[in-house]
């Protein structure tokens, strides 16, 4: 089967090999489409395994798009969470206006799959990457913007672009940071200097302001929410100041990981209303990437829209050793499952918890004897932080829904 002009659909023609982690041995030599036509079931797959849930993915895509639309927020979800073109398409088809990505290499991957609107949530400083982007700007259908937080960064971008003679100026957003945060100018005065430098460049265009509030808090404590809210207020103030430089042209204001969506909404809503009343065009862009997959850990505990989302990824692992009454070892570890925002959570094993992970083992412990758990038994694991789960897998089986063993897709990742 051929998929002329549709590189995402063409992934179904990729031929599977014996090198694919977790896939049944019989899949080797078949294309993805041929394998799925045999109606595979999860009990054929080898453990350890990462599994996605089609019903939850579809519902989550609709939920986050609906939440954003209700608030007049545009959604450009962070594609680096999954690096899976099929899941990018799911959100684009649901109404997302484009993708956010984190590195030039990720941008290049997205372009090979036909993504037409991309925001690089980072500074673009690599000369070779800048030259490549300059070439992409020759495509009038490609909308691209990157970030800058220092005059030195703008100087470097400008020098590389001048050498590449782009067909049009490159859009740049001024990034505002916060004390103790990640990147970003640390105060409004510095950010405005960056904005003026961009506005003065013949090869750059001042396109708006950007920031990431998630590095300023890690929980729902009063201190964290106050720090995030204050920062978002400063981001709106920076937009107002940049508006004086940009006049009436359209600007972008972007924030929003997946943890503090409600605070982003609270900060942006008055400015959205004021801008509409004044007739000044601004796109208020949310970049939530984890909301599509959600989780059973960090985001489950902190997301303000947890009730509207469902975890769409789970781990499967088998007991390979039961050396003590209160200890069982599973065959999945750091090479298979995310662990940076909390350990996996076992289901169906009352009183047990995963207390540690090695490369290929999980320590399942309980204060009581783990009765009824034998070597070879399968344990389903709730995972935390999808960003560090997807990168461990090249093909990920997708079951129909949480109660189904029928595999309806294989999601291909590109890390």
From TrEMBL:
Coiled-coil boundaries: none
Gene3D superfamilies from the UniProt entry: Alanine racemase (3.20.20.10), D-serine dehydratase-like domain (2.40.37.20)
Name of the featured protein: Alanine racemase
Superkingdom, taxonomy of origin: Bacteria
The organism of origin for this protein: Agromyces archimandritae
InterPro entries: D-amino_acid_metab_enzyme (IPR051466), D-ser_dehydrat-like_dom (IPR026956), D-ser_dehydrat-like_sf (IPR042208), PLP-binding_barrel (IPR029066)
PANTHER family xrefs: D-SERINE DEAMINASE (PTHR28004:SF8), ZGC:162816-RELATED (PTHR28004)
Domain D-serine dehydratase-like, residue spans: 312-400
SUPFAM superfamilies for the chain: PLP-binding barrel (SSF51419)
């Amino acid at each position: 089967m051929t998929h002329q002009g549709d590189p995402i659909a063409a992934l179904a023609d990729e031929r599977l090999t014996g090198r694919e982690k977790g896939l049944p041995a019989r899949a080797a030599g078949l294309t993805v489409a041929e394998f799925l036509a045999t109606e595979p079931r999860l009990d054929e797959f080898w453990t350890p395994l990462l599994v996605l849930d089609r019903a939850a993915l579809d519902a989550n895509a609709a939920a986050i798009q609906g939440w954003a639309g209700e608030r007049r927020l545009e959604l450009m979800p962070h594609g680096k969470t999954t690096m899976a073109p099929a899941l990018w398409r799911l959100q684009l088809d649901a109404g997302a206006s484009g993708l956010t990505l984190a590195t030039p290499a990720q941008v290049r991957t997205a372009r090979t799959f036909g993504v037409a609107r991309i925001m690089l949530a980072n500074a673009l400083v690599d000369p070779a990457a800048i030259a490549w982007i300059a070439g992409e700007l020759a495509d009038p259908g490609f909308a691209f913007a990157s970030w800058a937080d220092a005059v030195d960064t703008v100087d470097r971008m400008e020098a590389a672009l001048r050498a590449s003679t782009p067909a049009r100026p490159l859009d740049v957003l001024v990034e505002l940071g916060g004390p103790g945060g990640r990147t970003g100018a640390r105060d409004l005065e510095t950010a405005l200097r960056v904005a003026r430098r961009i506005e003065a460049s013949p090869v750059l265009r001042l396109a708006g302001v950007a920031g990431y509030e998630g590095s300023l808090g890690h929980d729902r404590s009063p201190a964290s929410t106050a720090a995030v809210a204050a920062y978002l207020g400063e981001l709106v103030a920076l937009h107002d100041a940049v508006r004086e430089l940009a006049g009436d042209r359209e600007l972008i204001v972007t924030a929003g990981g997946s943890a503090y969506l409600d605070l982003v909404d609270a900060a942006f809503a008055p400015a959205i209303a004021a801008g509409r009343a004044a007739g000044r065009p601004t796109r208020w862009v949310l970049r939530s990437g984890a909301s599509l997959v959600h989780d059973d850990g960090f985001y489950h505990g902190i997301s303000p829209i947890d009730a509207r989302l469902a975890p769409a990824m789970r781990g499967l692992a088998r007991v390979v050793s039961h050396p003590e009454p209160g200890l069982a070892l599973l065959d999945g570890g750091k090479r298979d499952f995310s662990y940076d925002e909390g350990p996996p959570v076992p289901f169906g094993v009352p009183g047990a918890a995963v207390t540690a992970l090695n490369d290929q083992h999980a320590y399942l412990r309980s204060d009581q004897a783990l009765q009824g758990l034998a070597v070879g038994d399968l344990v389903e694991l709730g995972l935390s932080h999808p960003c560090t789960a997807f990168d461990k897998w090249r093909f990920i089986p997708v079951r129909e829904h949480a109660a189904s063993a029928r595999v309806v897709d294989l999601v291909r990742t590109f890390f």
